Amino acid sequence: MIRVLLVDDQPLIRSGFRALLDLEDDIEVVAEAANGRDGLELAARHLPDIALLDIQMPVLDGIETTRRIAADPALAGVHVVILTNYGLDEYVFNALRAGAAGFLVKDIVPEDFLHAVRVAARGDALLAPSITRKLINRYVTQPPPTTTSTVLEELTGREREAVVLVAQGLSNDEIADRMVISPLTAKTHVNRAMTKLRARDRAQLVVLAYESGLVTPRRS
Predict the structure, then answer these.
(1) Of 93, 100, 120, 159, which sees the most CB atoms within 10 A?
(2) Cα–Cα distance for residue pair 123/23, rounded to 1 Å
(3) For 133-168, how does the pLDDT look when each residue is reduced to its tens digit (9 = 90+)?
(4) Residues 174, 182: Cα–Cα separation, whole Å
(5) Strands, DSSP E only, in the chain?
(6) Helices (H), 123-171
(7) Do residues 5 and 49 touch, judged by C-beta distance below 8 A?
(8) Handedness of CA 79, 4, 108, 35 (dihedral sign)
(9) Is the pTM of this model over 0.90?
């Protein structure tokens, strides 16, 4: 059972997402909140698998809420997915850097929304959908200042290759095809890289890949 926390200051939005989630046998909405402060308290109380957070909320916004969840070891199992009315904006980039596992635009079709929740719960390949590929392309054309880091020296050659492919938005199955290995081996390479780089999830792995210089931004 995938346990979900909904945090959005618009009751109609919350009720709409909840109505979709409640129809699924493998998903349970454990709590709702209208601001980030209450969301943090509920996350600590219920320890959901997924926290769906609106970016712009009163009291505590989605970015700061994400940052606090990511910084709390007790909430390490909570995957944050940002909800936004905007397809691509600076809020989304900042949320990913704060520790979000991914983001969803609120006008997403129901099937894609449910798929994204399940993918986020697995911690796998949320960066694969086409909308997030666009996010990656936008992010890498305007990256934050790059700093030289020795942390990548801990990675093996195959782990580095896997990280590069993750940064391109590939799923584990796609990485396996590209590297000519099994999906399980691909997942192992990605997970080991995340552990060595202390990345919370695949989204953070992408950020680290670009900020460290492992992946060079593509410019048109």
Answers:
(1) 100
(2) 22
(3) 555 555 555 555 444 456 678 889 999 999 989 887
(4) 10
(5) 2-7, 27-33, 50-54, 79-84, 102-105
(6) 130-141, 157-167
(7) no
(8) negative
(9) no
